[in-house]
Amino acid sequence: MEPDFKEGDQVLVSTLNFNNLKGPKKMRDSFVGPFTIIKLIGKNAVEVKLTEESSSKHPVFPVSLVKPYFQTEEDKFPSRKKNPTAPDIVEVGYSQDLFKHKTAHKDKWLAEDAIPDGNLHLRRFRASRRTEHSHQ
Questions:
Q1: FRET partner for 61 with CA separation of 20 to 30 A, picked from 23, 49, 128, 130?
Q2: Domain named Tf2-1-like SH3-like: which ranges (predicted)?
Q3: Fold for domain 10-68?
């Protein structure tokens, strides 16, 4: 049974049919928002007020892709910790653990978000590694 929505409700919208989001599909958020319902279109669809970031999308969504948004209050959950942000540089120490007969050495890594066009470079690197291994 679908929840009853009304104008002014805050909702989250499923990213199931969004095909222009960045990053790997399995790492994306399942829902985005919250958005405010500005109009009900029958019982099966809602029109939401999109943010500037999402303005390229059509603002009407079927209710099957929308769920109610419940704002959490920090005072109700004092022990809940927020996710810390990733450091700019991550230290990787030396380890004697063997992985495919290789040892890990001390290196410095940039956070993935700090690398411009990181996804593009990573895809090219992986493609080059695949061709190297296929020729051996």
A1: 23
A2: 8-69
A3: SH3 type barrels. (2.30.30)
